[in-house]
Amino acid sequence: MCVIIASRQRTRKIGRHLLKQIIAALLADLKVENVELGVQLVAAPEMARLNEKFLRHQGPTDVITFDYLDNAARASRLHQSVCSRDGCATLHGEIVICVDEAVAQARKFGTSWQSEIIRYVVHGILHLRGFDDSRADVRRRMKREENRHLRELSHRFALSKL
After folding, report:
1. CATH code 3.20.20.370 for 2-161
2. pLDDT digits (tens, 9 = 90+) for 47-60
3. Are 80 and 89 in contact (CB under 8 A)?
């Protein structure tokens, strides 16, 4: 498992070691062992540039996920929900998280910015596992999974120490 975390923002100091532990626990829960994952923590101006360049949307967003698996590997992943004797599910991608958006969303929804960061990590990893949120019906399913994993992780880790 290779998880690299980089912070290019000054909004909040984030404990990368704890974040890496949380990500490892989530990946273990999802039975994903073959992992190459980059997590980039950025400020609003950088996220706005990425959002416009890659998604053609104006302004910052909370999280953007880039899936680097080729089409054959992606199709295989969709059918592989647990480890088999041939190996474990594979994940290869990058998650870009806007810390400024996490702080703003936490204020709006009465949560902590740390739990918002973890929510975005879960959301990004679910996308890399094949979840979709482009339609209302599949978005509800993804949101339930996101909430479930966030709840489990918040019981196992002190997210406030992030």
Report:
1. no
2. 999 999 999 999 99
3. yes
